[in-house]
Specification:
378 residues, alpha+beta, MetI-like fold, 4-stranded antiparallel beta sheet, 14 helices
Length: 378
């Protein structure tokens, strides 16, 4: 009589040679096996998707850049369109009714006896419908427009629409951060790699230069360099000058962090093996050292952009940055720095809101990228 084998008994009695996942829950075992088939970039993306704050910040930033690049379409008016009869108009409300659809009320003005200034209030008799995708003969296609005055965030002392100026100002303030960080990355990555890999007199010279640069307070240094720009320069030239100034001031911190990464990598076995095999310095740096620092450089760059934006805002706020007729968020805040303006026209401080939102979004995205670059962390 042959013995019938029990498959369940055989599985229970068979020795388990796979001890890699001992003590792990079933979900963790499956997840670890799945992560083993993913590349490093896929691991970063998988971890980044789990960070809701980082994804939300990325969506906000992407939307902000799209709006700033399409300022001609999203802004109701040109940023420098002056309408002196509508000086200091408070923000108007968009209204909706089934009979009239989306509309805004007209404006009526009354001159106050104390200040002799015009005060604008809604005129419910005059109703102007709001139209979508309206083509203007002067400025092209607009997302929203109206036959009457439509100032959703109010106007400034020259009757210019504040919403339009904020949208156009984003184009300058946000691109200053990107261009400045690119220049800073080039200086910081190259000099940091040279300092960390070669050492010796090159390391000493670069580090002493960084220490001298970091010894100066940021704001006074920005002010001194901003004041050195020639007064006859055009707005575009001043824009690029401010970008270069911010980049030259901020590369030191990145260079020091790249230097630390390179110094740690150059002592590893794969770098020693490449050097022993006769690989050139250029091959070792570009194929072994720099790729290991890419993720760290991306995170540092993301966290450095808010500093660039705040630097441009501070310089323009102090009157040493972007100059009219070009506009930026700093230029808009400079117009609202007087206490009397804030008391009577508080809506002029509204450009501070996009500055706050963008800076916080970059910080949240930088934190998410910093966590995502270590995919195996808990």
């Amino acid at each position: 009589m042959s013995n019938s084998s029990d498959p369940l008994a055989e599985r229970l009695s068979a020795p388990d040679n796979n001890t890699d996942n001992v003590g792990l829950p079933f979900d963790s075992v499956g997840e670890s096996e799945e992560l083993g088939y993913l590349s490093y970039r896929q691991l970063i993306w998988k971890r980044l998707r789990k960070n809701q704050m980082g994804i939300t910040a990325a969506i906000i930033l992407l939307s902000s850049y799209m709006i700033s690049l399409g300022a001609n379409f999203f802004a109701p008016y040109h940023y420098n369109q002056i309408q002196m009869r509508y000086r200091h108009v408070p923000p108007q409300k968009l209204r909706f009714s089934l009979r009239r659809g989306l509309h805004v009320y007209g404006l009526k003005s009354v001159r106050t006896p104390e200040t002799r200034e015009l005060v604008f209030t809604p005129d419910e008799i005059k109703i102007f419908p709001v139209r979508f995708l309206y083509r203007d003969n002067q400025n092209g296609l607009h997302l929203l427009s109206s036959d009457g005055p439509m100032f959703l965030l109010g106007t400034d002392r020259m009757g210019r629409d504040l919403l339009s100026r904020i949208i156009y100002g984003a184009r300058v303030s946000m691109t200053v951060g990107l261009v400045g960080v690119v220049i800073s990355l080039i200086f910081g990555s190259i000099l940091g790699t040279i300092s960390g890999y070669f050492g010796g007199w090159a390391d000493t010279l670069i580090q002493r230069a960084i220490e001298i640069l970091l010894a100066f307070p940021s704001i006074p240094l920005w002010m001194a360099l901003g004041a050195a720009l020639p007064a006859e320069w055009s707005s575009v030239a001043v824009y690029f000058g401010i970008t270069v100034i911010l980049a030259l001031v901020s590369w030191g911190g990145l260079a020091r962090q790249v230097r630390g990464k390179v110094m740690a990598y150059r002592e590893l076995d794969f770098v020693k093996a490449a050097q022993a095999a006769g690989a050139s310095h250029w091959h070792v740096i570009t194929r072994h050292l720099m790729p290991g620092s890419y993720s760290h450089i991306i995170v540092i760059a993301t966290l450095a952009i808010p500093g660039m934006i705040l630097g441009e805002t501070a310089l323009s706020f102090l009157g040493l940055g972007i100059r009219p007729p070009m506009t930026s968020w700093g230029v808009l805040l400079e117009e609202a720095q007087r206490v009397t303006v804030l008391l009577h026209y508080p809506w002029l401080i509204l450009p501070a809101i996009p500055v706050l939102v963008v800076v916080m979004s970059f910080n949240f995205l930088g934190d998410a990228l910093r966590d995502a670059t270590d995919p195996y962390a808990d």
